[in-house]
């Protein structure tokens, strides 16, 4: 048997960090939105063990890869005696703030559950997902979501009326940003490291209205403070996009991807062309409808 699934990415419309917790993680509130730009995972059975291959040689194919660890956890939890062959076709850039690796892990849990005829239900997959990473539970569902705690407490939301007809432009500069580094440097920015609770709820409420203009002031990312200081190019990208027709522009997650929202495919394409004329074609650039 063979199962093939697409593995999407996400952007954070808000990432509001509230403070550091006793367990070493950060308490946060975030609104994540899925983006239909995909890696692809293919699963097939084998007599035993896990065999992972990937088109990107920069990624490990052993327990250093979240896909491999997700497969290990799934086989153990489901009591599967056989093994699995997995191929990861990687298109989403690494260390990009887009949750590509987290999505790969979540889709591995879903794909293996399909491969072995659904022995586990969704509530049984959730703790496995949370143990693999804070963003992984988000990708067990397909809607926008409000996430709290360290990001693992996910509440699915209906599509936002304010984003109807919007296209998203993703720009990755060719280098990644370590999430651990971003969080380590956050305490130098007290306002960003101790955000006002409730900002994510306000953004959700404003996005449920028809006009995006009412929501722009609530878009926010605490991690822009340390990341844009170290990588001013990302601030230049954001400013250029905002000045050249983007309805909104900001960094996703811990970076290094900047995203811009435009009304309609034509506007997104025009913004992309303006960006390339200004900065050249060294970035990974992709767009999709929201």
Task: Indicate the mean pLDDT.
Answer: 97
SSE topology string = EEEHEHHEEEHHHEHHEEHE
Determine the structural class based on helices, strands and strand pairing.
Answer: alpha+beta
The fraction of residues assigned to DSSP E strands is 25-35%
The global form is: globular
Q: Segments where pLDDT lies below 50 for 5+ residues? A: none
Explain what this protein looks like in three dimensions.
The protein is of the alpha+beta class. 32% of the residues lie in helices and 29% in strands. It is built from nine helices and eleven strands. The protein has helices at residues 66-78, 100-115, 122-132, 179-185, 190-193, 199-207, 224-230, 232-243, 265-279; strands at residues 2-20, 26-46, 50-54, 83-89, 145-148, 153-156, 166-172, 220-221, 248-251, 258-263, 284-289. The strands form two sheets. Strands 1, 2, 3, 4, 5, 6 and 8 form a seven-stranded mixed sheet that branches. Strands 9-10-7-11 form a four-stranded antiparallel sheet. Strand 9 and strand 10 form a beta hairpin. Helix 1 runs antiparallel to helix 3. It is globular and about 55 Å long. The chain starts with a strand and ends with a strand. The model has no long low-confidence stretch (mean pLDDT 97).
């Amino acid at each position: 048997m063979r199962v093939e699934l697409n593995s999407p990415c996400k952007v954070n419309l808000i990432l509001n960090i509230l403070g550091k917790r006793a367990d070493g993680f950060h308490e946060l509130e975030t609104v994540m939105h899925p983006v239909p730009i995909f890696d692809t995972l293919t699963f097939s059975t084998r007599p035993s063990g896990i065999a992972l291959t990937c088109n990107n040689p920069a990624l490990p194919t052993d327990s250093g890869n979240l896909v491999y660890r997700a497969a290990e956890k799934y086989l153990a939890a489901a009591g599967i005696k056989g093994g699995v062959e997995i191929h990861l076709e990687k298109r989403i850039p690494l260390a990009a703030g887009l949750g590509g690796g987290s999505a790969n892990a979540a889709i591995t849990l879903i794909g293996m559950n399909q491969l072995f005829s659904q022995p586990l239900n969704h509530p049984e997959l959730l703790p496995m997902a949370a143990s693999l990473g804070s963003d992984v539970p988000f990708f067990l569902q397909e809607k926008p979501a409000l996430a709290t705690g360290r990001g693992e407490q996910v509440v699915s939301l209906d599509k936002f009326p304010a984003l109807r007809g919007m296209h998203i432009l993703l720009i990755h500069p060719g280098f990644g940003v370590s999430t651990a580094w971003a969080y380590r440097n956050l305490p130098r920015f007290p306002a960003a490291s101790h955000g006002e609770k409730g900002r994510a709820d306000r953004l959700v409420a404003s996005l449920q209205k028809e006009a995006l203009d009412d929501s722009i002031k609530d878009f926010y990312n605490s991690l822009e403070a340390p990341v844009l200081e170290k990588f001013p190019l990302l601030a230049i990208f954001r400013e250029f996009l905002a000045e050249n027709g983007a309805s909104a522009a900001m960094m996703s997650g811990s970076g290094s991807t900047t995203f811009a929202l435009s009304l309609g495919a034509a506007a997104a394409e025009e913004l992309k062309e303006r960006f390339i004329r200004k900065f050249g074609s060294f970035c990974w650039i992709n767009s999709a409808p929201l």
